[in-house]
Amino acid sequence: MPTRCPSGRHDQHNVYAERCPCRALLDLLANKWSALAIGLLDERDRMRFSELQAALPGVGAKMLTKTLRRLEAASLVERTVYAEVPPRVEYSLTKLGISVNEPLAQIRAWAEDNIDTIDSLNPHWDVPAD
């Protein structure tokens, strides 16, 4: 249901409206790497880049960097740099990031619970390549 936009950037929040900034947020959250990174950070609290990459087989360094930067820009992920040699960087969820993990966890679980049914009903369905 559309709600009035308190920022005044547009008339109302409506993800179906072409110019609503909610679409950009939906795009970020619906991205598989975002959903998976948020889930891992929720499970493990803090992770280094190399740990995240190792826990997400198939994600390249460039894509993971882009994903983490977008999540940080949206205030869902916090990047902490420690003054060490070599520098240590860790990622963690903000309160806002923690709050979005619950609906994303439901989507991740639904995918695991239903993939066999989808495969059996659609023998020609194929998982798209990245």
Short description:
With about 130 residues, the protein is an alpha+beta fold. It contains five helices and five strands.
Derived from helix and strand composition plus strand pairing, the structural class reads alpha+beta
**Strands of the biggest beta sheet: in what spatial order?**
3-5-4
- Fraction of residues in β-strands: 5-15%
Cα shape? flat
Task: Specify Rg, calculated over alpha carbons.
Answer: 17 Å
- Our measurement of the CA-to-CA distance between the termini, rounded to an integer number of angstroms, reads 33 Å
The count of helical stretches stands at: 5
Order of helices and strands: EEHHEHHEEH
Mean pLDDT across all amino acids: 90
List keywords for this structure.
single chain, 130 residues, alpha+beta, three-stranded antiparallel β-sheet, two-stranded antiparallel sheet, 15% strand, flat
Written overview of the protein:
With 130 residues, this protein is an alpha+beta fold. The chain has helices spanning 22-30, 32-44, 49-55, 61-73, 95-121, and strands spanning 3-4, 12-13, 46-48, 77-82, 88-93. Strands 3-5-4 form a three-stranded antiparallel β-sheet. A two-stranded antiparallel sheet has the order 1-2.
SSE layout:
Layout: E1 3-4, E2 12-13, H1 22-30, H2 32-44, E3 46-48, H3 49-55, H4 61-73, E4 77-82, E5 88-93, H5 95-121
Antiparallel strand pairs: 1-2, 3-5, 4-5
